[in-house]
Amino acid sequence: MKKEKILVIGASGQIGVELTLALRKVYGGSQVIASDLREENELLKGTGPYVSLDVMNKEMLHVQILRQNITQVYLLAAMLSATAEKNPHLAWHLNMQSLLNVLDIAKEEKLKKVYWPSSIAVFGPTSPKVNCPQQTIIEPTTVYGISKYTGEFWCNYYFQRYGVDVRSLRYPGLVSYKSSPGGGTTDYAIEIFHAAKEKKSYSCFLNADTRLPMMYMEDAIRATIEMMESPADKIRVRTSYNIAAMSFTPAEMATEIQTHIPDFTISYAPDYRQSIAESWPQSIDDAIAQDDWGWKPAFNLASMTKDMLMNLSSSQG
Ligand code: NAD
Ligand code: AKB
User: Is the entire prediction scored with pTM above 0.90?
Assistant: First the structure.
């Protein structure tokens, strides 16, 4: 086991649960402290320590980092795109201040590494729709996208100015079965599986032909750990890396589900999330992540759908 002490902030969320479990496999259960405002997720119980923590309380965060001899922080607390549009000021405050709190403490205590995820939401309507490159026109139109793009530049600033080894990935929409999604525009791609299993029909909040970049959680967790474990000189992008796996529309996802559940039906009732989705690219060019630290996804739409349905069957007993 490696001698690191890791604090995961937002560990009870969609990514946090799986990332904490994966980090505990690498570093040992007792070396990875899970923390959240919410109560400990059931899947984390008994796998390692948990502390209740509000990342906005900088003093308490600092105390925890010192008390637990933390060497690395993974900051996952944030408000996602759809929820953020309902409360833009609160979203901006949480998404920015949480990052600044962690970066300041990392600088002061000389932490070894910090992880903070960005999103494909940094891109806006003026970015290229297809194979959107790492560096291009970036004019986000959601408060979530603005906060992520600004956060990327704070990460770069703390690295360049203070030498904080903070690293970041621009995740696409993440599909998973272990924990529930937290209020994003891509959440339909998870809800659809639960609806298909439970009632064989789904009313989608995006239009049939809305193509978005997506990734299976297993790939996202592996990408995160592979990037974090790469030597520092391989990490040339100090804002945030584009990473990609697959792109599909709700109609294509429904067709794939129908190969397993032939009587599954889908209908469409687009709401305010449609315009958020339309502002984002349809696919992402991740050539730089491939070159710098060897990123390669394992799952496509067919293999992800098969795995999701198999795991939801077994978890439903
Ligand atoms: P989530 O909403 O499921 O989880 C976030 C967790 O943070 C929640 O458990 C919440 O209770 C916790 N939290 C909120 N405020 C807090 C506070 N003040 N102090 C401590 N904890 C707090 O989100 P997620 O999907 O797991 O996303 C994690 C990160 O990854 C976010 O930065 C998000 O923007 C980014 N991301 C997620 C996706 C995705 O598809 N899930 C895609 C791109 C980027
Ligand atoms: C969301 O839809 O808000 C997230 C994301 C792509 O950042 N899943």
Answer: yes
